[in-house]
Amino acid sequence: MRLVVIGGVAAGLSAASRARKLDPALEIIVLEKTPHISYGACGLPYFIEGQVKTLDQLRVYDVAFFARERNIHVRVNAEVRSIAHQRREVLLSNGERVPYDKLVIATGAKREAARRGETMFAIDTWSDAERLGAFLRDAKPKTAAILGAGYIGLEMAEALRAQGLQVTVFQRANYVLKRRDKWLTQIVAEHLKRCRVDLRLNETLEDSTRYDMLIAAYGLKPNVRLASEAAIEIGRTGAIRANDRMETNLHGVYAAGDCAETTHLVTGRPAWFPLGTTANKMGRVAGANAAGARERMPGIVGTSIVRVCGLGIGMTGLSPEDASKEGMDPVAVEIEALEKARYFRGRVTRVQLVVNRRSGQVIGGVVVGEDGVAGRTNVLATAVTSRMLLDDFVNLDLAYSPPFSRSWDPLLIAAQQLLKLLH
Amino acid sequence: MRLVVIGGVAAGLSAASRARKLDPALEIIVLEKTPHISYGACGLPYFIEGQVKTLDQLRVYDVAFFARERNIHVRVNAEVRSIAHQRREVLLSNGERVPYDKLVIATGAKREAARRGETMFAIDTWSDAERLGAFLRDAKPKTAAILGAGYIGLEMAEALRAQGLQVTVFQRANYVLKRRDKWLTQIVAEHLKRCRVDLRLNETLEDSTRYDMLIAAYGLKPNVRLASEAAIEIGRTGAIRANDRMETNLHGVYAAGDCAETTHLVTGRPAWFPLGTTANKMGRVAGANAAGARERMPGIVGTSIVRVCGLGIGMTGLSPEDASKEGMDPVAVEIEALEKARYFRGRVTRVQLVVNRRSGQVIGGVVVGEDGVAGRTNVLATAVTSRMLLDDFVNLDLAYSPPFSRSWDPLLIAAQQLLKLLH
User: Fold this and answer.
1) In chain B, residues 340-369 whose CB comes closer than 8 Å to chain A
2) Residue A115, pLDDT above cutoff 80
């Protein structure tokens, strides 16, 4: 019995490792088209920023580790050209055929725009980071335009500011961080201004020659060419459609990671969230099921966190505007509160809390601040996942001691305010 | 219509303020027996430690504020001697009678042991802190014995170490922090050893003359004398029994704060948790209902957090041993994991996760570490409150980005390990 995995980063290696745990006898081959496997792609902007000193710091394991410790055969520079499911084999670019019994597709995402010129850079892969790092070192650019104000765009704004560049961010939409939300957009816009990053909303770059370099941080798409050519169903999000066992419409063929859809637990509908956490979870489930177990990936609630010039921004669930688009009746409140006492240098934390008026359930929220952002975002994510009522959320028994928090946590203050609006 | 509140710190002033919000016409009188109101008692150990420079930093509002901004008449040095409910009045020590229509009892807790000598100190009130601060300054003690290894005892161990004292902690029980748990006790014992605090478990102080000073950090009891003499029902925990509206067995008489019981949401039984967060919540509900609204205090899950010589320790729900005592079938796992990548100076976080095998629900947990402890504890508290199944907990969509966390959060790693034990 042989499992073939296409893709050797987060989802692919999670799948392979999980399959090995559950079935010591399975033959497992991972095919990675680049020379690099098993690295923390989310850390690439911090290599550019300087916090990560060498790309090797981002590597988790190497090929030898997988062979020795997990009996997994990882092949680098092994590009799959096509999948022939009827013959149960994949065809490599070099003409080689690799048969499989089970297949996991973890082909990730790609940016249409990337590498359209010598001074345009992406920061999605190891090679992207190498190339950009070398350019910064050798060409010493002074100005950069970043195209796109999603996570990567804003992380790169911080990274390039840290390298001393003048940075302009062009965002075609009127919101940032993929969240239709005026409140959040304004906070980010004001913060970027303070950090002397020039954010241009509703604008596309007209004259690219005005900047020494460009960062392509828009237009990320699931990489589904192989799947689609093999008659694997693509969902409405543009990513591979899979059930909650991460199996595609082809029996024995699984999809995981940035190329695949999962379910949004608030809307109940398919969603595409190309994030490392989701990729790892999907990979784990795909690998388990490919190895004969029965595991489920229930879905996600759209949680993410990003640091933008020192400011933490965490979000989960739906924004009021997104909830309205889903036909819900959202009510939201935004508050500011100290997250610790002043004598413990407590800073202002801002919280947006969103409930669905009809159900009374907490359906989303945003936390912005310098400290405690991940924890509060995760409390919101847990409440959203468990469909907690605002009436229960407002009474949450949260941890308090002066070095850590306040007697009324900002989350609870937001909930109290929101209750007033509802009653 | 007049509301009288006995007690002018957390619960009492929460009750008074909430009642005022809901009923602008109510006459509200708060009777506080000491000269000090509205201060953060949880911050007192940090005054001794030095982080809080003057006690005034712990004061939230003063008497004039309550008069001016909230039309609440706060009387200090006004000790209630008895409650005469049939006549609807309280009798003060000076002989004065104060009539009421509604009454909130927020008499707090007290330590039987405190002030049994010139070198024995408590740290429960403003005056305690003044007296101890003056002693440290004037007598320059070199050695201290702390009696009790609960929150206050261990916070005071840190505070006195910071002041350069040699500290010995005597704990009659074989566990610390009021949590019957060997794993946690061992972590705390080892950490205290590293911080050169001498923890003596299963030991009581024999010869108090061997130490320059003693801290009474044991034997805290709900202060229920007034209530009990007025035929108000006392629960099995020793605290005032109240329903979920915080009303006692006497109609129109409410209890809130460290003198009152609430419900433990995991066991479903009355519980006494003398903590600031719980006191504030109870006070808010008591005040609302006293003002004619109908609000509920559903209960608590026993969440707390404490800093012990720089180490954060958060806990919620039941320990395995406490769950067994409740007739549950607990299964627990303890793990260690980095809470961030090494290149972001991630430190080891330890997590204990407890589920009830019969229901599959998450019923408790402990988080220990230097960073992110409050947030992870609060995720656990939220999961425990919502009776989340481990099967759902393990799939929680938690926030990840390298400056904040890891792709597999320590909470999820613990959940994965625990799932293996269950299946």
Assistant:
1) 341-344
2) no
Within 10 angstroms of residue B329's Cβ, the number of other Cβ atoms is 11
**Closest Cα in chain A, distance from residue B410 (Å):** 12
Token pair of B18 as six digits: 């909430």
**A196-240 pLDDT per residue, tens:** 999 999 999 999 899 999 999 999 999 999 999 999 999 999 999
Which residue(s) pair with B332 in the sheet?
B354
CA proximity to A222, closest of A79, A111, A304: A111
Residue burial A93-116, b: 16+ Cβ < 10 Å; e: rest? eeeeebebebbbbbbbbbbebbee
- H helix or E strand, kind and range, residue B412: helix B410-422
* B338 burial via Cβ count (<10 Å: 0-12, 13-18, 19+): middle
Q: Nearest CB to B276: which of A58, A377, A400?
A: A400
Task: With CB atoms and an 8 Å threshold, state whether A397 touches B316.
Answer: yes
The two tokens of residue B129 are 């802190």
**What is the mean pLDDT of the segment spanning A241-256?**
98
pTM greater than 0.90: yes
For chain B, what percent of residues have pLDDT higher than 90?
Answer: 96
Tokens of A347: 């800073």
* ipTM, 2 dp: 0.96
Q: Mean per-residue pLDDT for B33-47?
A: 94
Write down the H helix ranges in B202-345.
225-229, 276-290, 320-325
The Cα B162–Cα B158 span in angstroms is 6
List C-alpha distances in Å: A319 to A130, A218, A394, A412, B263.
36, 21, 19, 19, 34
For residue A192, pLDDT beyond 80: yes
Q: Residue B325's CB: how many other CB atoms inside 10 A?
A: 13
Question: A350 has which bridge partners?
Answer: A336, A368
CA distance B205 to chain A (A): 28
CB contact under 8 A, B403 and A46: yes
Q: Please count the other Cβ atoms lying within 10 Å of the Cβ belonging to residue A236.
A: 10
